[in-house]
Each structure stands twice: as C-alpha cells, then as structure tokens.
Amino acid sequence: MFLKSKKKLEEGHSSAVAAHYNELQEVGLEKRSQSRIFYLRNFNNWMKSVIIDIADVSVKQCQQRYEDMKNRCRDNEYIFSAEFVTADCSKELLINKFHDTETCFDICSCQFVCHYSFESYEQADMMLRNACERLSPGGYFIGTTPNSFELIRRLEASETESFGNEIYTVKFQKKGDYPLFGCKCDFNLEGVVDVPEFLVYFPLLNEMAKKYNMKLVYKKTFLEFYEEKIKHNENKMLLK
C-alpha cells in the first residue's frame, strides 16, 4: 500500500492477456463452486475488496453486476456512482477517458495486475502514473502482485525451468537471468489463467512510485496478511 504525499498503441503481451480474459466464460456460482481452485479464487477475492480492465468482456460483466445491484437497492439506500472503462493502463492515459478529466480519487485499487505492466519501464511508469497521478493528497494506492523473491526461490530449487503441481505451473525461459523489466514467465492456473506475466522487483516498484509523490506505508505477503487479519471476526465472515 502506497500513500500519496501531501506535497497509436503498440501491440505486446497485453493483447494476449486481454484476449485470454475475453475468452473466459461466465459460468455462474454453482459451476465455479465445483472447481478445484474454488477456494483459492475465494481467498484471492477476499484479499481484494475492488473498474478499469483491459478485457472488454470483464468490464461488461462488472457493469452488469453493478446495474443489477442498483436495481436491487431500495429507494432509501445509497449506491456509489461508477464509470466503466476498457483500456490498457500500461499504455493509455486513463484520465482522458473519464467524463470529468479533473476528477481526483482517494483510493486506487490495483489487484493482481501490476505485474503485466513490467514488460518495460515505459509501461510500468504509465501504470503508476495512471494509479497515482489523480490521487488526492493523502490518497492511497493499494495493490497486490506475485512475490518475485518466492518465485525465483522456487525456480532455483527446481531441476528444470518450471515448477508447480497439478493445479498450477510457472515456467521461465531460463534460470539465472532476471532483468528488472521484461522478466517473463508463463503462469497456468487450472481453467482460469494461462497468460504471460512479468516479475516485479518490489524495491524497484517502491522507487518508481516516489516519482508520483508516493511513499510505502504497508507491505505484507499474503500469508502475513492472512495471519494478521483472520484474527478479527468480520474478516473470518468474508471467507465463508
């Protein structure tokens, strides 16, 4: 979590990511509950209580859920207003797509997607600009991304250029060469994800965020976060 201090598009891996998520079918809760990764997906959703997306289908599904929620509201109930934008936040300046280009935000939530932008410095910088530039002073940028240190540790412990189990696999091009940008790996999670990703060296992300007046105020692994937050009953209820 970062706090804001009070002071013609190129083709790349992003098109493959968008195509992958556009092809995923909305199967409904009953069928999702039969998946072997059902509880993993629930845990990930618990980590990100989250509308900009690179996949047009995902945006449309999100917008439909928002409209359904509005329709269920009683007259005396308040529901937040929302804009839905299909864009690549690592290549496009998002503020130009908003109805009000002067709008500011208190929180930007970027869950499980920051790593896609680390294909190059330019893309990572654009992602951070979009996330932080329109935050109000004192605003927060909250994000989650795979732990590059843990991924490399598991890779180096493997006898091949990949590791995983019957549910997931992570495959690198080779061991021992981990550039700050463009460090590509292929991640496959049963029935849900099969797209190229890039490692995020967190100290570098921290330094790059300073350009936009951000300072790091909270950093935990998922395990550390779980052990800290699960002690509270309201958080336990979210996992049920």
Please give a structural write-up.
This protein has 240 residues and is α+β, with helices and mostly antiparallel strands. The protein has helices spanning 13-23, 29-32, 38-47, 56-72, 121-132, 148-157, 202-209, 222-229, 233-238; strands at residues 2-4, 52-53, 85-86, 105-111, 135-144, 162-164, 168-172, 184-189, 193-198, 214-216. The strands form 3 sheets. Strands 4-5-1-10 form a 4-stranded mixed sheet, with no helix packed on it. The protein has a 4-stranded antiparallel sheet with strand order 6-7-8-9. The longest helix is centred in the N-terminal third of the chain and has 17 residues, at 56-72. It is globular and about 60 Å long. Residues 46-50 have low confidence and may be disordered. Its EC number is 2.1.1.56. Residues 1-240 form the MRNA cap 0 methyltransferase domain.
Helix and strand topology:
Elements: E1 2-4, H1 13-23, H2 29-32, H3 38-47, E2 52-53, H4 56-72, E3 85-86, E4 105-111, H5 121-132, E5 135-144, H6 148-157, E6 162-164, E7 168-172, E8 184-189, E9 193-198, H7 202-209, E10 214-216, H8 222-229, H9 233-238
Parallel strand pairs: 2-3, 4-5
Antiparallel strand pairs: 1-5, 1-10, 6-7, 7-8, 8-9
